[in-house]
Design a protein that fits this description.
The chain has 737 residues and is of the alpha/beta class. It folds into four domains: 40-218, Rossmann fold; 223-364, Helicase, Ruva Protein, domain 3 (Orthogonal Bundle); 373-548 and 563-591, P-loop containing nucleotide triphosphate hydrolases (Rossmann fold); 597-689, Helicase, Ruva Protein, domain 3, CATH 1.10.8. It is 49% helix and 11% strand. It contains 30 helices and 18 strands. The strands form five sheets. A six-stranded mixed beta sheet has the order 1-3-4-5-2-6. α13 (248-261) packs across α14 (269-285) and α13 packs parallel to α17 (353-364).
């Protein structure tokens, strides 16, 4: 025992250094009673015996993977270089294959060459921990290797094999991988490794001498059918842990949804995670504390408060009585809890398909659960709600709504994005606004709108900003602006604004997104776009429309004919800019209608509603009369520029005068304004109604101050008279702002 301690601590003695090479007999434990002496005490200290755990039933069942386990056994049976390394993506079951081999050795379901073998996992972190002085790590490693050489029945399993490269290495000393190389080549030590593809390539493949000593075994993700079988076999342990029951239907749905929506991870790991979390959710959701326990806890709390109060009053007899009452109540509480726990153990709850869907929705942010009745009604009314926010674009709204309904009904092609649309038309008709309104409708906020301004990608080299810089360039590790945002929010609306201003190479990048819903970023990760709505806006053909003159698209004459002419003009311009293979992958090319004067009145109502809510925030009420709206339409309607001049007109004629009045203290909290227009005037008129002043108290002195006006035209107005204390004063002046 002292020799083992000296090896672990690094304080070697002459005897331990000489005996470290003698193997199991000289460094073994002394027998205690009838306990069998261990042949590998150092390895027992730094390792974990998988065959022993399998014998005790502490390992999960391993289903399938027959081919991989057979290949591992085959490589282990070789005379030299008999060291398999399991290589695969995270979560495919590499460690489970080693555990499966340990279970087969116990069950004697392997070739006779592997009978009575032990598979021991080496803990490299424990091996390195505490090695402060030079030579300590090498001494521990040498002790482990001596034991392995003396014990041919031990197979070493190193999970995360790449960690042996550089482990324990310091200037002038060897690392773990270089110490292992000679013994691995001679076949004196048998080792199973497990690592991921990227880490094998990065650490082990670079070292040709180490790479040649291992035989690569690729472990692919399991198929959905194999994953269902795996989950069926391991569900018992999860049912026991969560006190729930998994139906066959819920297990199949967990595999199906995890494969469809959790794209960054691999089967069977992600399906097991979904099943595990669904069990936890159901278990937690069914924990209901009995009323009796809640009542007892309340009584105990009140008795304790009363006891503390009487102790402070030095009524000790009363306190002793309360203490006895508290003890009785505590005993009753313990009995009630024990009874509740007994009942809870017998109550087994079923994990339903709805629970699985809700867990996947929580994990991914994608609504995958069945459509509830309120949502189905909402989707059927989608056009009506969108028309309230986007004026005069019925065709665009109808096509978008159909696409969303198709997706939520489960009928869309699962290998493509939800929808891809190009919005065309004159400037200011609501193309970008449509994307914002759609995002707000689907997500109740505009946070899920991923807006990329394509005018920033005019240069050829700017393409790398979308998907990330290539290896060797600055910013390689940061990822792309588009791919990173979609990776974090896979269910979102992607708006590529002013797409015609981007470099043509950007369109080529988007081809695989529009067709397969996949984009590979600079780091080699496949980003899933299958749950995104891709919207592209463009002003292509706007100049051609303008050159056609007032008769096309903006006259009060044959609107239908003019729209068709404008549409064909825009589509011709589109074909000149974009390649056929790009246009062929887009679901719909939607040409927005030019705005007419009747539409502009509806837009004023929307814009003024936003203004009213902002004014309400500073305590001012606004009423906009029809004459004022007509005046704003006259000043703000320009058929060439759409609704944007209208916003500028509202700022100039409404917001600017109000802002000046607020800053001049002519408007205060609680005031209300009526905005109108007198024919022939160049400005709007503002009529202010002041907030009611509180009546003067009895014996009070002075009266409330006279109401102020927002502004006054000195040529035709007289100063307002002082108001009576109890009256509400109203200024009847028409103000030329």
């Amino acid at each position: 025992r002292s020799e083992l301690d000296s090896i672990i601590s690094g304080k070697s003695t002459p005897r331990s250094s000489s005996s470290s090479g003698t193997g199991s007999s000289s460094t073994g434990f002394k027998e205690r009673g009838k306990m069998e002496k261990s042949k590998t005490p150092v390895l027992d200290n730094f390792g974990r015996d998988l065959t022993k755990l399998a014998e005790e039933g502490k390992l999960d069942a391993v289903v399938g993977r027959q081919r991989e386990i057979e290949r591992v056994a085959q490589v282990l049976s070789r005379r030299k270089k008999n060291n398999p390394v399991l290589i695969g993506e995270p979560g495919v079951g590499k460690t489970a294959i080693a555990e499966g081999l340990a279970m087969r050795i116990i069950q004697r379901k392997v070739s006779r060459v592997l009978y009575d073998k032990r598979i021991v996992t080496l803990d490299l972190a424990a091996l390195v921990a505490g090695t402060k002085y030079r030579g300590q790590f090498e001494e521990r490693m040498k002790a482990v290797m001596n034991e392995l050489e003396k014990s041919p029945d031990v197979i070493l399993f190193i999970d995360e094999l790449h960690t042996i490269v550089g482990a324990g290495g310091a200037s002038g000393s060897l690392d773990a991988s270089n110490m292992f190389k000679p013994a691995l080549a001679r076949g004196e030590i048998q080792c199973i490794g497990a690592t991921t593809l990227d880490e094998y390539r990065q650490y082990i493949e670079k070292d040709g001498a180490l790479d040649r000593r291992f035989q690569k075994i690729l472990v692919d993700p399991s198929s959905p059918e194999e994953t269902v079988e795996i989950l069926q076999n391991i569900k018992d342990k999860y049912e026991e842990h969560h006190n729930v029951r998994f139906s066959d239907e819920s297990i199949e749905l967990a595999v199906k949804l995890s494969e469809r929506y959790i794209t960054e991870r691999y089967l069977p790991d992600k399906a097991i995670d979904v099943m595990d979390e669904a069990g936890a959710r159901v278990h937690l959701g069914n924990i209901h504390v009995p009323e009796e326990i809640v009542k007892l806890e309340g009584e105990i709390e009140s008795v304790r408060d009363e006891k503390n109060r009487v102790v402070k009053s030095q009524k000790f007899e009363e306190a002793a009585r309360l203490r006895d009452s508290e003890k009785k109540l505590l005993d009753q509480l313990e009995e009630a809890k024990a009874e509740w726990e007994r009942k809870a153990e017998t109550e087994i709850h079923d994990v339903t398909s709805t629970d699985i869907s809700q867990v996947v929705a929580m994990m991914t942010g994608i609504p995958v659960d069945k459509i509830s009745e309120p949502e189905s009604k909402k989707l059927l009314r989608m056009e009506e709600e969108l028309k309230e926010r986007v004026i005069g674009q019925e065709e665009a709204i109808q096509k978008l709504s159909r696409s969303i309904r198709r997706t939520r009904a489960g009928l869309k092609d699962p290998k493509r994005p939800i929808g891809s649309f190009i919005f065309l038309g004159p400037t200011g008709v609501g193309k970008t606004e449509m994307a914002k309104v759609l995002t707000r409708y689907l997500f109740d906020s505009t946070d899920a709108l991923i807006r990329i301004d394509m005018s920033e990608y005019m240069e050829k080299f700017a393409v790398s900003r979308l998907v990330g810089a290539p290896p060797g360039y600055v910013g390689y590790e940061e990822g792309g602006q588009l791919t990173e945002k979609v990776r974090r929010k896979p269910y979102s609306v992607v708006l590529l604004d002013e797409i015609e201003k981007a470099h043509p190479d950007v369109f080529n990048i988007l081809l695989q997104v529009l067709d397969d819903g996949i984009l590979t970023d600079g780091l080699g990760r496949r980003i899933d776009f299958r749950n995104t709505i891709i919207l592209m806006t463009s002003n292509i053909g706007a100049r051609d429309i303008k050159n056609l003159g007032q008769g096309i698209g903006f006259s009060q004459g044959s609107v239908a004919l003019d729209y068709q002419t404008m549409k064909s003009t825009v589509e011709d311009a589109l074909k000149r800019v974009f390649n056929p293979e790009f246009l062929n992958r887009i679901d719909e090319v939607i040409v927005f209608n030019p705005l007419e004067k009747s539409h502009v009145f509806d837009i004023i109502d929307l814009m003024s509603a936003d203004l009213f809510s902002r004014a309400q925030g500073v305590g001012i009420g606004i009423e906009l009369e029809k004459t004022a709206k007509t005046f704003l339409v006259e000043k703000g309607y320009d058929p060439k520029f759409g609704a944007r001049p209208l916003r500028r007109a509202i700022q100039k004629y409404v917001e600017d005068p109000m802002a000046e009045a607020i800053l001049a203290s002519e408007l205060s909290d609680g005031d209300s304004i009526t905005i109108s227009h007198v024919e022939g005037e160049k400005e709007l008129s503002f009529e202010t109604e002041k907030a009611k002043k509180p009546a003067a108290t009895a014996g009070g002195t002075g009266a409330p101050e006279a109401d102020d006006q927002v502004a006054s035209d000195t040529s035709d107005e007289t100063p307002p008279e002082a108001a009576e204390p109890d009256e509400t004063d109203s200024s009847e002046d028409v103000v030329d702002s």
